Amino acid sequence: MIHALVTCLTAASSRGEGYAKGDNANIMIRLGEVLGERLGEPLRMPLLCQLIGVTERALRTSCGEFIGVSPTRYVLLRRLRQARIALRDGNPDAVNIAELACHFGFPQLGRFTSAYCAVFGETPSTTLASAPRAWFAKR
C-alpha cells in the first residue's frame, strides 16, 4: 500500500522538483519493504536507518514529506493497522489478543491496548468481538 502511495506521489510531484524528491520516494519504498519484512521486530530508529541505508535525518525528512508523521509514529500506526486487520478478520474463539499484540511488536498488552484505543476509539476485544461469527461457523 505504501508503495502505491509513494508511486502516485512521486509521479505527480517529481516533475521538475529535482533529485531529492526521487530520493525521498526511494527511501519510502525501502521503508515499506523493511516494515513488510520486520513489522513485529523491535525497530528502533538507528536499526531502521541501517536497514534502509539512510541517515536518521533523511528518513525523518522523507516521512515528513510523504506521510506527515515521524518514522516512529508511522511504524506504530502500521503495526496497529495490521493488528486491527488481524482482529477484525480473526476467529473470536481462537484469537489470543496478547499473542497477537506480541506478534505485531507490542510485548506489553497494556501499552498495545492504550495505543489501539487512542487510534481506533475502541478496545482490541471490541474489534475482535465484532468479527462475523457466522463466517467462521461455515469454515
Helix content: over 70%
* Overall structural domain count: 2
List low-confidence stretches. 8-19
Output mean pLDDT: 84
Question: What's the quaternary structure here?
Answer: single chain
H-E order: HHHHHHHHH
Alpha-carbon distance between the two ends: 29 Å
| Main sheet specs | none
Shape: elongated
In DSSP terms (H or I, runs of 4 or more residues), the helix count works out at 9
Estimated share of beta-strand residues:
under 5%
Instruction: Please tally the β strands and state the result.
Output: 0
Calculate Rg over CA atoms: 17 Å
What is the structural class? mainly alpha
Structural notes for this entry:
The protein has nine helices and no strands. Helices cover 73% and strands 0% of the residues. The two termini are 29 Å apart. It is elongated. The protein has 139 residues and is an all-alpha fold. Helix 1 packs antiparallel against helix 2 and helix 2 (19-38) packs across helix 4 (56-66). It has helices at 2-13, 19-38, 45-52, 56-66, 71-89, 97-103, 109-120, 124-129, 133-138. The model is unreliable at 8-19 (pLDDT under 50).
Record the SSE blueprint.
Elements (H helix, E strand, L loop, with lengths): L1 H12 L5 H20 L6 H8 L3 H11 L4 H19 L7 H7 L5 H12 L3 H6 L3 H6 L1
Helix pairs in contact: 1-2, 2-4
What's the short story on this structure?
This protein is mostly helical. The chain has helices spanning 2-13, 19-38, 45-52, 56-66, 71-89, 97-103, 109-120, 124-129, 133-138. It is built from 9 helices and no strands.
